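notes to self, project folder thing:

trying the whole complex as one job this time. last attempt i did each chain seperately and stitching them together was a nightmare. two parts in total, labels are on each line so i dont mix them up again. if this works i'll redo the older ones the same way
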Amino acid sequence: MPDKPKIGFYWCASCGGCEEAVVDFAEDILGVIQAVDIVFWPVAMDFKKKDVEAMPDKSIAATLLNGAIRTSEQEEMARMLRRKSQYLIAYGACAQLGGIPSLANQFPREQLLRYVYEEAPTVVNEAKTRPQTASRNNGYDMTLPEFRNVVRTLDQVVDVDFYIPGCPPTPKITKAAIGALLEGKLPPKGSVLAPDVALCEQCPRKANKPADLSFTQFKRPHQTVIDPNLCMLAQGIVCMGPATRAGCEAACPGGNMPCTGCFGPTSRVQDQGAKILSSLCANLAAREEKEIRGVLAGIPDPVGTFYRYGLGKSMLRRKANMPVETAKNTP
Amino acid sequence: MSDPKWQPRIVAFFCNWCTYTAADLAGVSRFKYASNVRVIRLMCSGRVDPQFILDALAEGADGVLIGGCHLGDCHYSEGNYKTVRRFQMLQRLLHDMGIEEQRVRLEWISASEGERVKTVINDMVEQVRALGPLNLPQHRAEWDRETAHPAETALPAEAAGGVQLAGQRAQPEVAHA
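result (full assembly):
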């Protein structure tokens, strides 16, 4: 009996939404299981790290890894799965671009740890206990992974073959990618497995996008009643569509919310945030400096708005004046 | 703390019709200005994609100077208005990303203002010198040292001043004037 191709799923710094996207295959998952053997999927199946370690190198046809890389354990798993897999696929915005976790690249590690373990309003920790990478308890040596200074994309740690974008990727593009993999119809290495055009191409509001945009005010979605048919930009709502890759079939604009950019840029754009900044700001109606400043104040957090899913992969990657702290959570 | 031989490196994007012509005039007028500026000629300051500015900084520039026609004088009538709007937001973005606002400067210099090219460049070079090196390529190499892995140290990590990662461009040659 010929072996079915082996597939692995793994998660790193992520919310679990990408795992949910696989579950969202619903009954179609049965078709996938007929065609492949799932050999590793910690969130759903009981395989252990040692089971994968025991497999020969390159014996997994493809591993879909979601989540950004933040800890030493995630680095180790990414390296092991790279060795064991013919194709390593960055699955979802965090693995591809850093995702929401990479917004933490605006803060030093110490500040993050202090807030989470000492200062957050819901935390009571008078002894100021922090997780330790090594400790001894009841005669046992306990270890925890090292928390890194920087949130990284998968391809900043290991070589990546393909990218499936989205927060999370839709079942449709995931199925198309797995289909292409099984049929051996893959594009060149390094490709993003989604259409290489801007989201506006798939947006049902495209017909109502004015040829000349002219912003007099930026409104956030909770500050206005959004017209369900008119282009978001024509309503003064920041929509990342023009700087974002298509593939989701405009799920958010279809649900009357603006695109926030989770599919990342097209292949012609290196820095998604810079590109949407360029496009939005150039089209302001204001001409006087003070007036311009007033309109731009409608976007209170440019980094969080323009790089919501992509700070880790942006040109600047991390706040420039951040320190690299050595492991202070080691005793 | 910084290397005494260090010289600021500034990338300048000058518009063809005004500031670049003014820089030409500065040249024929024999005005002396600091040699720290590498001028790139574009047809309009409105052609300066914010990606160019981020790329210059990310690849090792200590500052970026953009020069265009005075507002109202743009050869393409609206180009420099686009520039000034983008510039304001870019400054906020750079501030949030820890880059001092004096490192990126926008100046309107008309074709007849050769002397102003000199004063702006000299002034900016001194400002950036006072701030010190930005040195983002080296920062990135330092950040990535924490991921160095024994099995992969076949990479010339230390020699290159850090680990070179997949998907990241090679570090540019550092050639100080």
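what i see at first glance: The first strand of chain A starts at residue 6 and ends at 11.
need to look closer tmrw
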